[in-house]
Design brief:
Elements: E1 10-16, H1 19-22, H2 35-40, H3 46-54, E2 58-63, H4 73-93, E3 98-100, E4 102-103, H5 109-121, E5 128-131, H6 145-154, E6 158-161, H7 167-173, H8 190-204, H9 207-210, E7 216-218, H10 220-223, H11 225-236, H12 246-253, E8 254-257, H13 264-274, E9 279-280, H14 292-300, H15 305-320
Helix pairs in contact: 4-5, 5-6
């Protein structure tokens, strides 16, 4: 078990930032100087160097949060198209090392569905990534369902990625601790709560009854949901509620990644709940700035080399058609 199989490594939650899009944001989302932000804007130097040092063959590139989820309806479609075209140009320069997830203009759902189809059919992208709520609205609202319908039709996944939770959530639950523990509203807890809630709402909404072949990816080992799966499923089956097979939907329509979460117990929980075929390797670079610990951890995890090979690239090749 203490070895790494001789297979390519595909990392599927690896971020970049689009300089033109960043100009539209205010506050911390606009970016600031620093090692992470230097890497977010880099394609040719640090990114490739650090991939090579860790033995990562391919990054599937995606915009960092909030991506295009906060753009106004009047400009969202055109800006998302330009963002995706710029990413496609970067991938075209180095197609052996990069693939891409589309950014979608969720403020205009029908246009977002069309942009997803353009990105898949014309630009060769592998799916799309959506960051948090769409201008404050959860994605289970039926106005967003055309996006999911198109993803199902195209047979490509939608990756649900965290963004900052609604400020009201932070104010009610965490404001006393934000000054001393800034990350409590980000990866330490806020991101998880926001994204897990998004996923639960999608299942409760009946989306997967309408679109049973829809594929959703969650990072960070499923944002706690695999650990909670038995309890959620059991509680939702108590009398007096609408019938719902929560476990069946989650284990049939969702995939998980290792992004930013290199823990044996968490991995084994996910393998036991979901099966190893639904787990994909990711680092979360450059928010996790060093690729090496993620790759080295995979060589030590208590799984067979056959299972490690699936996580490192086999499952991504099948899901993303790479």
């Amino acid at each position: 078990m203490m070895s790494k199989p001789n297979v390519p490594i595909i990392a599927i939650e690896e971020h970049y930032w689009d300089a033109e899009l960043a100009k539209t944001f205010q506050g911390p989302e606009a970016g600031r100087p620093g090692d992470i932000h230097t890497r977010l804007h880099d394609f040719d130097n640090l990114r490739i160097k650090e991939m090579d040092e860790a033995g990562i063959d391919i990054q599937v590139l995606s915009l960092g949060a909030p991506s295009t989820q906060k753009l106004p309806a009047e400009s969202a479609a055109q800006m998302a198209r330009e963002v995706n075209d710029r990413l496609a140009a970067q991938i075209k320069k180095n197609p052996r090392r990069f693939a891409g997830f589309a950014a979608l203009p969720t403020a205009v759902p029908e246009a977002a569905a069309d942009e997803l189809e353009r990105c898949i059919k014309e630009l060769g992208f592998k799916g799309a990534m959506i960051h948090g709520t769409a201008n404050g609205e959860f994605l289970d609202a039926q106005k967003f369902w055309p996006i999911f319908a198109r993803a199902e039709k195209l047979d490509v996944p939608i990756y649900l990625h965290p963004s900052l939770p609604d400020p009201r959530i932070t104010d009610i639950y965490l404001k006393e601790y934000v000054q001393d523990f800034a990350m409590v509203v980000r990866p330490a807890w806020g991101f998880t709560v926001d994204t897990a809630t998004q996923a639960i709402r999608l299942i409760l909404s009946g989306l997967f009854e309408k679109h049973p072949r829809l594929k959703i990816i969650l990072g960070h080992f499923g944002e706690t949901l695999p650990f909670l799966l038995w309890r959620i499923d059991n509680a939702l089956k108590r009398p007096g509620q609408k019938p719902l097979e929560f476990r069946e939907v989650f284990t049939s329509n969702f995939w998980l990644t290792t992004s930013g979460f290199f823990s044996d117990p968490a991995l084994l929980c996910c393998v036991m709940e979901m099966g190893v075929d639904r787990i994909l390797f990711a680092v979360d670079w450059p928010f996790v700035m060093n690729n090496k610990p993620a790759v080295e951890w995979m060589s030590r995890v208590p799984l067979s080399n056959e299972d490690k090979a699936k996580i490192l690239s086999g499952n991504a090749k099948r899901l993303l058609k790479m």
